[in-house]
Each structure stands twice: as C-alpha cells, then as structure tokens.
Amino acid sequence: MYVPFVPIISRLFLKKKIHWSIWLSVSICLVGSYYLTIGNSFEAQFADLLVIVCALFFAIHCILIDEYFEIINAPFTLATSQFLLCFFYSLPFIFIFENPTIVGISKEIFELLYVGVMSSGIAYTLQVFGQRYVKPSTAAITFSLEGVFGSLAAWIILSQYLTNIQIFGCFLILIGVLVAQLLPIINKEAALNRFYSD
C-alpha cells in the first residue's frame, strides 16, 4: 500500500508533479501485490488496518528522507538518529505489552539480533543511503520487490508453495519496477521528469 501512498501524498500535500510513467508503474505494482497476497477470500481483518497504517507511515518516511536530503546530505546521521529515537520511543511499550525476561531474551537472541542488525539496522541504513540517488516514488516502486523476494525466499527456504496467480503477481511487480527504471531511458520526456519535478 505504500507504493501508491508515496506519489499520492507527494502530489496532494507537497504539490509535486508526478510523471505519468510513475502512475503506470504504481498501478502495475499494486495489481501485482494484490495477486501476490490474495488468498482464498478477500475479507478485511483488523490486521489489515494495521498494515495500511504502517504503510502510510512508511510512505511518509520515504518522502521525509528526500526532504531531509534537500536540506543536508548526512545519511548516516539521519539513520542513526532514527534508530535512537525509535529505541527510546518504543522502550516503554515493551513493559506495557510484553513481559521481558533475561531468560526469554536469551532464548530468542539470534532472532532479535537478526531483526535489529540485519532487517532494521543495515536495511534501513541502506535505504537512506540509496534514496540520495532516487526520488521517493521510484524508491517505493522498487521496494515493492520486497514482497517478491520474500515470497521466493519462503518458497526456496521454507518450502512454502506459490500458486500460479501469486507467481503472476510477482511477474507484474517486476514489470512495474522495470517500467519505472527503463521508461525514462527510452522516453526523453520521462527522463527529464524521471521521478517528479517541483
């Protein structure tokens, strides 16, 4: 959901001009994501609402990174500040919603380190560094490959089966990402307005 949220917020609230190739890519990725995640039924759950809220905040996060770089080019400082603020803001909720113990933490130390170091620390730091070179809309489109690689990894490592429609969804997301990346090379007008212009 953050894929369409980024250009919509950029257009409505920041008054950015979004090139038509971005809207095309977003539409393809959105349809692909639907096919990738659809199950036997399409019944909204409370968890779906939480996912949408998270997607909204992630979209704002992508946009604010770009706005930050217009002021100062210090990606490592930005990433470190985000981690420290998230740590201090989240710390009280551990004791509200969980019952942490040394024994419990020691049992899950590998998973905690993986999430903290790899999927959060390194991944988000690389996102911040990478967004110096692309605009938020294109970054969000590229991030939609997360679902593709996650599904393929689950298929290979965890032997989770992908249906034909889910494979088709992965294919559509890949097409959407390629459209966002290659169309500006083919089309001169798109190259001049590759991501969006003020």
Characterization of the model:
- The radius of gyration is 19 Å and the shape is globular.
- The chain has ten helices and two strands, in the order αβαααααααααβ.
- The protein is mainly α.
- Residues 194-198 have low confidence and may be disordered.
- It has helices spanning 2-12, 20-37, 46-71, 75-97, 102-107, 109-130, 136-143, 145-157, 164-186, 188-192, and strands spanning 17-18, 196-197.
- The longest helix is centred in the first third of the chain and has 26 residues, at 46-71.
- Helix 2 (20-37) runs antiparallel to helix 9.
- The chain has a domain at 2-73 and 132-197.
**Beta-strand proportion:** under 5%
Order of strands, main sheet, comes to 1-2
Helix count, DSSP H or I runs of 4 or more residues: 10
Q: What oligomeric assembly is this protein in? A: single chain
User: Which structural category fits the helices and strands?
Assistant: mainly alpha
Question: Top keywords for this entry?
Answer:
198 residues, mainly alpha, two-stranded antiparallel sheet, 10 helices, 2 strands
Short description:
This protein is an all-alpha fold and 198 residues long. It has helices at residues 2-12, 20-37, 46-71, 75-97, 102-107, 109-130, 136-143, 145-157, 164-186, 188-192; strands spanning 17-18, 196-197.
Give the helices and strands, then pairings:
Layout: H1 2-12, E1 17-18, H2 20-37, H3 46-71, H4 75-97, H5 102-107, H6 109-130, H7 136-143, H8 145-157, H9 164-186, H10 188-192, E2 196-197
Antiparallel strand pairs: 1-2
Helix pairs in contact: 1-3, 1-7, 2-9, 3-7, 4-6
